Amino acid sequence: MNFLSRLERRLPEMMALLEQSVNMDSPSADKALTDRVIDWYEERFREQLQAKVERVPNDLYGDRLAVRMGAGPRQILLVAHADTVWPPGEARRRPFRVDGKRAYGPGVYDMKASLIQALYAMKLLQAEGRLCDSLSIVLLINSDEEIGSPTSRAWIEAYARESEAALVLEPPLEPHGALKTARKGSGRFLLSVQGQAAHAGVNPEAGISAVEELARQIIRLHSWSDADSGIQINVGKIAGGIGANVIADYAEAEIDVRVDTMDDFRRFPGRLNGLVPSLPGTRLRIDGGMNRPPMERTESSARLYEIARSAAREELSLEPEEASTGGVSDGNFIAACGTPTLDGLGVGGGGAHSPSEFIWVPELARRTALLAGILDRI
Ligand SMILES: [Zn+2]
């Protein structure tokens, strides 16, 4: 019997566990609630797997778990998060439900299904005696991913540096469940403009409009977006001025920047700091910075993708797709450590971060078979 048919037989119990975990809220900002979900995962991994489960306490956000199976020198990282973007009470408002082939509920797709997937892939390898002696598989579960992993980033990076490869269990790219070998890097900036206030009717010549200067800068910034080089700029929020009859002495804009390459990632703060005012007498100031480096497609991540491809062919009779995305994940800074990284290994579905979020139920067994197949071939 192959991996898939074994897992299809376990699908009802996998769904029962998924239901329990989706029905527990775990907002990143609520330590008490997220710790309850971590307690639940800790128990499941301890009782169902012969593995070393280490719990790392956290003062600010939910605790973290590192689940280690095997003791070989070649370490493979599985990366997942227990937190969701949903507030307390969300699971009571719209609990887990199955409708046909879809399962709904807060965080079901991003990424509570992925944790059940990791548990069953590891269980299967253990039960089948397929974990080769040279390997150790370490599953990392953090609780602050949805807010940028402020307290878990260094912890994940330390594991990444010691690992031969990292498999990130974020949802795949839809509609065809593509695996992600590249992600854009991202940054956030604030552009502040200082002008000169004056009465718009009485002495306009004494004023210099910060609002006009900002408008000119926004047009310049948006013109930097360039599909060929992969640069995306979005001025997503602006503010300025105090009223229609006052020439504004202040205006500001929040800027989101996405880049494909490490070169652009390093260059971008300098490029923004090099902005010059269009209106004489105004002053510009840039705050903020780049935070997640791009996950670039490398020769070694392409090799990892080839392993996933043969696992998909042999376990699922499926030709997977490879994709690049503008979204960011923990895969970004893992790849920046030089660790070959494959992302988007989670369960197919859609509607991440929206109330229509769902997974395709049969995909829970299929993507678990794929994950087990990759670990078996790595
Ligand atoms: Zn996620």
UniProtKB/TrEMBL annotation:
Organism of provenance: Paenibacillus dendritiformis C454
PROSITE patterns reported for this sequence: ARGE_DAPE_CPG2_1
Keyword Transmembrane part of the UniProt annotation: no
Record GO terms (molecular function): hydrolase activity; metal ion binding
Catalytic residues in the record: D83, E145
Keyword hit for Cell division: no
Protein name in the entry: Peptidase M20 dimerisation domain-containing protein
SUPFAM superfamilies xref list: Bacterial exopeptidase dimerisation domain, Zn-dependent exopeptidases
Matching InterPro entries: ArgE/DapE_CS, Bact_exopeptidase_dim_dom, Pept_M20_glutamate_carboxypep, Peptidase_M20, Peptidase_M20_dimer, Peptidase_M20A
Cofactor(s) needed for function: Zn(2+)
Domain Peptidase M20 dimerisation: from-to ranges: 181-266
Keyword set, alphabetical order: Hydrolase, Metal-binding, Zinc
